[in-house]
Each structure stands twice: as structure tokens, then as C-alpha cells.
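Appendix B: complex inputs.
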Amino acid sequence: MVTNITNLGRSGVSDWLIQRVTAIVLALYTVFIVAYMLFHPELDYATWSALFQRTWMRIFTLLAFLSIAAHAWSGLWIISTDYIKHAYARLGVQTFIIVALFVFVVWGVQVLWGA
Amino acid sequence: MSSKRPIHTIKRPVNLDLSSIQFPLPALVSISHRVTGVIMFVGLAFMLWAFSVSLSSPQGFEAVKDVMTDNALAKLITWGLLASVAIHFVAGIRHLFMDMHVADTLEGGQRTAQITMVASAVLVILAGVWVW
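Resulting structure:
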């Protein structure tokens, strides 16, 4: 069996499943946000911030943030292993991607619970 | 693994001149799925900035609203990201169907690639109408 040390689930089958589950979460979140914006064409701050005060919306958004990190990592891992042949360059790019996604999640959590 | 021969000594046809290759429609759907994925990763910074500032204060909310309705560059970025989401979304749904063995033959793949292209194009245009 081929195993990797840089991909998300350490096996292709695991990555495949994580990618699908996170894809469904993100598809639902995207449809929700787009529908919300379309139904609130004159959106103001009070309505917008009230939405993100709700516990279920914070949990749904946190789930979306974590899904973005996992989904982006499995996708960008595939792309970087396909196109970047030089091992150190690939490792450098992959490290940058992980750090960027980590920063994204921490920043997102701060916005969700900080304000 | 019986052969220890390095892979580069094996005689096999190699053609790296991409401009000489005819790309079938499913290949174009596949590469646009990848490209839009990378675009959204880069665009995360923009999206999170807008999310963060819009929730920071009423003034922040108005600032994001103003830049997204007045600034041509911000509108272009917003449209580009919405278009990427749309293209990635439709191509992803196609993948989920193929996982369930729906249209996973050569003919089926070509047909769903056509559907994906048309549906993506419609959504990209609608996204443009929404932004402008």
C-alpha cells in the first residue's frame, strides 16, 4: 500500500471521504449564504450581526471554516504533488498552505466569537 | 515491484507540448475545477477580510458595502470569486454523481461535461448580473 506523510488522512481513501463530506458541508453553507443574501437585498448591520449572534449559525460557520481548511488541504495537496516535482519546493509550498489555512481558521474563530 | 529500473529509462511516449494536444471537454472541466479551487484559496483572504470588517461595527459594515458597490476592482474580485464558487460547485456535483456511478462512462462523462459547462456559464453570468 502506498502511504504518504503529507496528505490529510494519510491514505487516499480517507482523503477521498473527507473531501466529499466537507464538499457537502460547503455546498450547503454556500447555498444558505447566497439564498440569505438574495432574500435580504437591503441587508443592514443589525440584521447581519444578529444572524452571526445565533449559536446555530456560529456552529454552522465554524463547521464551514473547518471544512474549508480540510477541503482546501486535500485539494491543494493533490495539485501540489501533481505539478511540483522538486521535493523541497513542494514541501515549502505545502507548509505555506498549512500555515495559511491555520491562520484562516484562527482568524475566523476570532471573528465569530470575538465581537 | 519486480523491476528496479529507474522510471526515466523506460521508453514511453512523452509529449509535454500542451499546445499540440486537443483537450476534450471533460479535461477542460477538470482543469477549471482545479484552477477555481486555487483561486478560492487565494481569495480566502479577501472573503475573511470582508466577513471580519462587516461584523466589526456598523461603520465597518457600511465600508464593506461601499467598496463592494462602488470600487470596480472589488466588484471584479467579488465576481471572480462568485464565478469560481459556481464553477467549482457544479463540477463538484458532477464528481459526486460519478462517485455514485451515475454517468461514469466515456459517453456519460462527455455529456455531463457539456451540462457542467453550460450550467457554469449561466451561473457565472448570473453572478455578474448580481454584482453589477
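Chain B touches chain A at residues 34, 37-38, 40-41, 44, 48, 51-52, 54-58, 61-62, 85, 89, 92-93, 96, 99 (CB under 8 Å).
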